[in-house]
Amino acid sequence: MGSITSKIHITYEIYDPPSIVYPNDTLSGKITLSNTGNKEKKLKKVYIELLSRFEHYERLSEHDPDSLFTRKRWMEQSIFLKKYRLEHPQFIKSGEKIEIGFVIQLPSKWKPIKGKKYRDWHLALFFLQKTGLISNVGTHSKDAICILPVEQSDIPPSQIFLKKTGSSIDMSREFQEQPGKIICPRCGMENRATANFCIACRMWLTQFKFKTCSSCGKRINLNDKYCKHCGATLVNEISSI
Q1: Is 93 in a helix, a strand, or coil?
Q2: CATH top-level class of 8-161
């Protein structure tokens, strides 16, 4: 998944996107590859990877010269879970768009990465192609990475899972009518303030919550243990946006 320049733009679509996915679930959809360059490209590979992603708070080596100034830092990490190879044409012409359908089954299990030294755990599908030396997600990575709606995820799912046909979301609702509660903007169900999903309609609730630092008063991520602004230990206070 290299970062070299690519002339292939990748987008994806999930058919009938669910509100939440579980182990062994099946997802179907299509990938669209567009050749934005002025030359025909040979498609060596087209595939999907499922990764477990998170950040780890690591101590720098005492022999690292930077350790005199920075003892610890957050590092992005990924755990490979599964690869899905897709059938594809051999070439893609300049200006051409190719659609490739897929049906994939998620693994039978995965393990959320939790703890004081971990944050921002989530599962993501990477839609990849290889026309050059290294496989990559194309010209715009945000269009080719799909964050899945799974239980205990620290990151909201991709927008495609939040757009449910016929689902009316009233953004003017009061999200915290009572201490320790959050009201679902889709169905009005009262949930615990710590809930990630609505217990009634399974809507993703974390997108409407943030934590406030009791020391400096600035907004931080819901699952942060320490304030990134002042370094204070955070209290379990959750506010609505």
Answers
A1: coil
A2: mainly beta
